[in-house]
């Protein structure tokens, strides 16, 4: 390889290079450039350029091939915010994100508190509770489509047996939303569970010992020791979960297709259908930027908060 | 209540909850072993179990091809990210250079930008490059990862200063220091990194959905949709067998990697 032949190659410069002279600083900057360049090139082509293009496209009308046709200013934004379908998808997205996000964390906290002490056998259950982590949206969708199937699925048949007339939940607007929330909670619990387990276990035992001496009830211990101690983790998870839920796509595509009656047509899915289904790239671009703004805000919030958490430690 | 009764109570509830959480997978595995005729008749308690659905899935659907594609794609992305992220993380951890803070911030900013918002121009770029329906199109856009750089940088910063000074003393160059000291020292993070990235991209859905059109490059997750859309949809036995096949590598990785994931989460939580 080229690297070995060229003695001036910055990658082969001894890692000593102290920054005392101008020449050396320059050399180090060169070295750093070699290390950073591959990542920067990929990011430039596949992250920064497309972000800028999306921003530009959102200000244009486009033809069916996605090429810019005419500058229209902010009228794409005006259009989506006066489009009842987009507003409906915005509302539905928020309903989904909040119920699925809170549900995931509540279930994870419940599970973590059940197995956080050092009882025998808890290790096995920890593995069991974490096991849904990493399962793909597509596989989860198929597993749940089967469970909820009105004529062959365990839950579908159960609903039928207890007398629910509309036991085909996918065909019902509320039912479809419930399925997506259930799948989302099921998929997300493992990650939150492991995080909360770590937080619960890092609360010093002494605190509880002192509380016992002071004669506190378990209720008092929960609210005065446990909750404050794990609250940074809870907050961190809340933001992470919210960002993740906003991006939900696979389960919608496979389970509901956005229906029925657009009840589960969330923003991320609407971007996709408007771009690759309706070929309305300008509209899709402005919807994508609204999604970006929401996610960027949540991420910024998370970074600020995590910093504070480190400070407190 | 006596202590042992309390324990029995505790384990009873734990078992119940674990069964509920595991039910979708357990029922899925059970159904994958049953003849479709029995499933269609609602006889989930049938005992006609066999591996016939798996044989049918492998013989009548391209699931093995899809799995091979996913495997190739996930391995290529993980390898690409390993190289690019290691280099960038090394620079941020051990080198001083102009605009270091700003460039690091630039990397972090990309974590705020959802891929969903980049997908339209990226699709057009890939089309211009002639990479639609190809491994290049499926992998190269993911070679850089700000999250990966961040994760490795945190690990590299743990390398003791003494080791850094010592390696300078004996005149190791950057690459020697990286390969002989930094990477071996960060082994457990690297394993976490590899497993995490492989899993993430084994599960990729939206990008392969948009950019692949043929079974030669279609990946498992999208393949599952393809199979479901075809007439095999009513063949629940085969569908469940396919889903379980696709799930197996995931479960394997989680089993092997659990130790590392937990460790990664803990140190990540402390350091992030």
From TrEMBL, chain A:
<dbReference type="InterPro" id="IPR035906">
    <property type="entry name" value="MetI-like_sf"/>
</dbReference>
<feature type="domain" description="ABC transmembrane type-1">
    <location>
        <begin position="90"/>
        <end position="302"/>
    </location>
</feature>
<keyword id="KW-0472">Membrane</keyword>
<protein>
    <recommendedName>
        <fullName>ABC transmembrane type-1 domain-containing protein</fullName>
    </recommendedName>
</protein>
<dbReference type="GO" id="GO:0055085">
    <property type="term" value="P:transmembrane transport"/>
</dbReference>
<feature type="transmembrane region" description="Helical">
    <location>
        <begin position="31"/>
        <end position="52"/>
    </location>
</feature>
<feature type="transmembrane region" description="Helical">
    <location>
        <begin position="124"/>
        <end position="148"/>
    </location>
</feature>
<dbReference type="Pfam" id="PF00528">
    <property type="entry name" value="BPD_transp_1"/>
</dbReference>
<feature type="transmembrane region" description="Helical">
    <location>
        <begin position="281"/>
        <end position="303"/>
    </location>
</feature>
<keyword id="KW-1003">Cell membrane</keyword>
<feature type="transmembrane region" description="Helical">
    <location>
        <begin position="90"/>
        <end position="112"/>
    </location>
</feature>
<keyword id="KW-1133">Transmembrane helix</keyword>
<keyword id="KW-0812">Transmembrane</keyword>
<feature type="transmembrane region" description="Helical">
    <location>
        <begin position="176"/>
        <end position="197"/>
    </location>
</feature>
<keyword id="KW-0813">Transport</keyword>
<feature type="transmembrane region" description="Helical">
    <location>
        <begin position="225"/>
        <end position="244"/>
    </location>
</feature>
<dbReference type="InterPro" id="IPR000515">
    <property type="entry name" value="MetI-like"/>
</dbReference>
<comment type="similarity">
    <text>Belongs to the binding-protein-dependent transport system permease family.</text>
</comment>
<dbReference type="InterPro" id="IPR051393">
    <property type="entry name" value="ABC_transporter_permease"/>
</dbReference>
<dbReference type="GO" id="GO:0005886">
    <property type="term" value="C:plasma membrane"/>
</dbReference>
TrEMBL record, chain B:
<dbReference type="Pfam" id="PF00528">
    <property type="entry name" value="BPD_transp_1"/>
</dbReference>
<feature type="transmembrane region" description="Helical">
    <location>
        <begin position="71"/>
        <end position="92"/>
    </location>
</feature>
<protein>
    <recommendedName>
        <fullName>ABC transmembrane type-1 domain-containing protein</fullName>
    </recommendedName>
</protein>
<keyword id="KW-1133">Transmembrane helix</keyword>
<dbReference type="GO" id="GO:0055085">
    <property type="term" value="P:transmembrane transport"/>
</dbReference>
<feature type="domain" description="ABC transmembrane type-1">
    <location>
        <begin position="67"/>
        <end position="257"/>
    </location>
</feature>
<keyword id="KW-0812">Transmembrane</keyword>
<keyword id="KW-1003">Cell membrane</keyword>
<keyword id="KW-0813">Transport</keyword>
<dbReference type="InterPro" id="IPR035906">
    <property type="entry name" value="MetI-like_sf"/>
</dbReference>
<feature type="transmembrane region" description="Helical">
    <location>
        <begin position="177"/>
        <end position="199"/>
    </location>
</feature>
<comment type="similarity">
    <text>Belongs to the binding-protein-dependent transport system permease family.</text>
</comment>
<feature type="transmembrane region" description="Helical">
    <location>
        <begin position="104"/>
        <end position="123"/>
    </location>
</feature>
<dbReference type="InterPro" id="IPR000515">
    <property type="entry name" value="MetI-like"/>
</dbReference>
<feature type="transmembrane region" description="Helical">
    <location>
        <begin position="236"/>
        <end position="256"/>
    </location>
</feature>
<feature type="transmembrane region" description="Helical">
    <location>
        <begin position="135"/>
        <end position="156"/>
    </location>
</feature>
<keyword id="KW-0472">Membrane</keyword>
<dbReference type="GO" id="GO:0005886">
    <property type="term" value="C:plasma membrane"/>
</dbReference>
<feature type="transmembrane region" description="Helical">
    <location>
        <begin position="12"/>
        <end position="33"/>
    </location>
</feature>
